[in-house]
Structures are given as structure tokens and as C-alpha cells.
Design goal:
mainly alpha, 68% helix, globular
Length: 174
């Protein structure tokens, strides 16, 4: 059986075939959860917001315009997190100023991972978000540009500079 691309599946979902959303959920719910968890540091919040992202995929399916599905989905996830903090009147007005909490799995933390988490926590929140999306979630530069409202070249340059900064912070922490 031929495997449909995310974009093809979302197009069919936007045309009313909601049964196919299960395929998108199966493919991407862990990525969305991990992104939200790394940005918030809160497992329960990440679970709730992940469910809400997929609810919004159904609710706003008609606004999908055949672009990159990943860009569209992570834009919804970003906006969901921002909206959560705004609604709950946390001291965070924008996703770029969210406090990063190091995400560590119990009983499975290597010393290198702890140093990397520390180095990530030292980055500017906007920079940290770009690294998480690009390196952890493997979001392409073109998609990052669409999510962030920039150009692919600018995103590539920015990520390269951030990685150099991250490397320096990491090497200083060991």
C-alpha cells in the first residue's frame, strides 16, 4: 500500500475525511508533545496542549492551504503554548520569553546530557526554540522560515550561529 505524505493526508482531512487524522496523530503526536514539553518543562501541560493541537487541526482544517504540514502544525503548537500562558496570566507575554526548564528523564541522565541541557537553558528562548525545532524535531529551514516569518537563508545562518554559541557554552560547562 502506498504511503501518503502528510500534506496529502491533511488535504483529504480538510475535504472531510476525518478518519485520516488518526494517521497524522500517530505520526506526529510524540514530536508535538516533546516540543511542548521541552519548551514548558511541564508534562501534564504538554499532554493537554498536544491534544488541543490535534483538536485544532480538525477545527481549522479548512484553513490548511496545501503548504508544509509540519510548518502549519508546529505553528499551531507554538501559538497554543503562547495562548496558554497569556490566558493563565503567567508573567510571560510572548513565547520568546518563556522560562526554559531543563528536561531530564528519571534514571536515564548521562553527564553529557546534563551539560547539554544546561547549555540549552543558557540560550535566549527564541534561539533555544530554533535549536529544538531544527535539531530535535528535524524541522527544515524552509519550514522554520515559514513558522518564524523569515527566510530559509536567515534561519540557516541563525541556527549556525546559535549552534556555535551552544557549543561554547557546552564546552565551558564541562
Amino acid at each position: 500500500m502506498e504511503t501518503l505524505s502528510d500534506e496529502m493526508i491533511m488535504q483529504k482531512v480538510s475535504e472531510g475525511n476525518l478518519d485520516l487524522l488518526k494517521e497524522l496523530f500517530d505520526r506526529h503526536h510524540k514530536h508535538v508533545y516533546n516540543f511542548l514539553y521541552k519548551m514548558s518543562g511541564d508534562r501534564m501541560l504538554a499532554e493537554d496542549l498536544t491534544q488541543d493541537v490535534f483538536y485544532k487541526l480538525i477545527k481549522y482544517r479548512n484553513s490548511y492551504n496545501n503548504g508544509s504540514f509540519l510548518s502549519w502544525m508546529f505553528t499551531i503548537a507554538r501559538n497554543n503554548l503562547k495562548t496558554h500562558y497569556t490566558r493563565n496570566q503567567r508573567p510571560h507575554d510572548d513565547i520568546e520569553v518563556l522560562a526554559y526548564k531543563a528536561v531530564e528523564e528519571e534514571n536515564d541522565i548521562s553527564e553529557n546530557n546534563a551539560h547539554l541541557q544546561y547549555a540549552l537553558s543558557q540560550l535566549d528562548p527564541y534561539d533555544r526554540e530554533l535549536v529544538i525545532l531544527n535539531r530535535y524535531k528535524e524541522v527544515r529551514y524552509e519550514d522554520l522560515a515559514e513558522i518564524m516569518g523569515s527566510t530559509p537563508g536567515a534561519m540557516k545562518t541563525r541556527v549556525c550561529r546559535i549552534l556555535k554559541k551552544l557549543k561554547n557554552i557546552y564546552l565551558e560547562s564541562i
